[in-house]
Amino acid sequence: MQCFVILTKQENNAECVDEFTQYRDAKGVILLDILPQGQCINAARYCSTLDRLKEAIRRKRPGLLRRGVVLQHDNGTPHSANLTQQWLQRYGWEILPHPAHSPDLAPSDFHCLDP
């Protein structure tokens, strides 16, 4: 199995966030997803992003989807919603637990955000 870690940078703005999300594995970035300004992340949008991630994995890491995917994300509403859980079960993706109250980024990941 291959583990994909989601790295996000957010700036809170009411209920929406300005956000980009980096999906990566040990070999590097698989997908960079940028949430358009003014849009909110919800389960449907997150599942759409997972569809794009699945396609990016198919293109950039051939054969990996057959071996299994382990995804790490936090327990945010879009991640824990029924729609998202159904998507993950349909494709057999495993979730690596994310401890409560953990930062989205570990200090060791800050280099990913350099300009």
UniProtKB/TrEMBL annotation:
<dbReference type="Pfam" id="PF01359">
    <property type="entry name" value="Transposase_1"/>
</dbReference>
<dbReference type="InterPro" id="IPR001888">
    <property type="entry name" value="Transposase_1"/>
</dbReference>
<dbReference type="InterPro" id="IPR036397">
    <property type="entry name" value="RNaseH_sf"/>
</dbReference>
<protein>
    <submittedName>
        <fullName>Histone-lysine N-methyltransferase SETMAR</fullName>
    </submittedName>
</protein>
<dbReference type="InterPro" id="IPR052709">
    <property type="entry name" value="Transposase-MT_Hybrid"/>
</dbReference>
<dbReference type="GO" id="GO:0003676">
    <property type="term" value="F:nucleic acid binding"/>
</dbReference>
